[in-house]
Structures are given as structure tokens and as C-alpha cells.
Amino acid sequence: MTSAVILVPGLWVPAAVMAVLAARLARHGYVTRSFDYHGRAPLEANIARLARFVDGRTAHFVGHSLGGVLIYDMLVRHGGIASGNVVLLGAPVRGCYAGRRLGARSLGRWLLGACVGRWEAHEARWQRREPLGVIAGTLPLGLGRAFGALPGENDGVVCVDETTVEGMSDGALVRTGHNMLTVSRRVGALVSQFLRTGRFA
Q: Residue 109: its pLDDT value, please?
């Protein structure tokens, strides 16, 4: 099985924020590469850039927030791209209530840029053969609460229900906030376990 892992960060942050997770995976023998992108750019453009970054090589994928959405959308739309195991961290693949609320304001639309439409609610289904694991945070601590409480369990930005994918291999809940998912020791252990076995247990 491949030891290569492509890491994709969330909106508004550089690829360097994945450094802690990269270091933890390196201790388990994985070779990581981080994909940097402009989150406000059109989603299709970022998907195309990520596909070029993969460059035909088989790798595991780990993405946080919008980075997880990019990975999911790329692999769902482009079945010919080879993949190892896939882990999404707090990725609102089914839309994002906080994103819609932010996008209703002029400043929010500017901040979200061309990805604003991706936060509309819709279904998410995984039909690829590669294992997909989803990790969601349950500590409601994040900027998504700036305009009021979020519905249901959430990590302060993304609701747990928004991360659920029909057909996923496994899911895990971690008591941490949205921005802490990439640096959590527990999350690092879960990601390593899933890349190795295709399960969190």
C-alpha cells in the first residue's frame, strides 16, 4: 500500500497549518505533501489544480474543512484519479449552515469568494471502492458561532450532520473545535489508523 499522503488545508489558511499532522504521520512512515490553494478562487479551478498536483500518482488523501470538500469533489467527479484511503476532517460536504449564514452578508460573500455556492445543502454519497473515513469535531468553538448558535452537534463552524457521507467506511467524533482538528493528537492517531487499515477502530 502507498505511503504517500496528500494533505489539503481549509479555507483562508496556508498549507503550513498541516505541519503538525504531517509530522505525526511521518512518525508512522508516511511521506506527506501539502497542497496550497486560494480558497476564494472558483471551486472548479481548485479541483483542477489539485488533480494536477496529484499528477497521476496514487496517494492517500487527508483534507480539513474546505480542503476535505475539494478532495471529496475531485474524487467523486473524476473516477479515473487513483487514490489510497481518504480521511475528511470537519469537511462540510453536505453544505454548511455557518457558510450560508456568512454568505448572506456582503463582507461574508467577499470572504468566501467563489466557493460561496458550495455551502448550499445537498446530499453526499461515496461510491468509490477506496475506504472513506470522516472525523467530526463536537466542541462548539469556532467563528461559525459569531452570528449565533449552530444547530445540533458541531465544532463551532461545521455541524456533525454536514460531514456525514452516505457510503463512508467509518466515522469518528472527537471532542475538539474546528480549527484544532489538524493539531489534535487524537485526530492524528485516528488518521494514521485509518490510512493503515481503512477503519478508525
A: 86
* Strand, helix or coil for residue 31: strand
Residue-wise pLDDT tens digits, 12-29: 899 999 999 999 999 999
Q: What 3-state DSSP class applies to 26? A: helix
pLDDT of residue 113: 87
**All residues at 6 or more sequence positions from 14 whose CB lies less than 8 Å from its CB, including other chains:** 36
d(CA 199, CA 106): 42
Q: Is the pLDDT of residue 137 over 90?
A: yes
Structure-derived torsion over alpha carbons of residues 44, 50, 54, 55, reported in degrees to the nearest 10: 60
Kindly state the cell numbers that stand for 124: 453526499
Model confidence over 175-187: pLDDT tens digits?
999 999 999 999 9
CA pair distance 121, 142, nearest whole angstrom = 20
Q: How many angstroms separate the CA atoms of 45 and 41, rounded? A: 7
Grid coordinates given for 181: 482538528
Q: Which three cell numbers stand for residue 8?
A: 489539503
Burial of 138 (0-12, 13-18, 19+ CB in 10 A): middle
Task: Estimate to the nearest angstrom the gap between the alpha carbon of 35 and the chain centroid.
Answer: 12
- Tell me whether strands 4-8 and 31-34 are parallel, antiparallel or unpaired: parallel
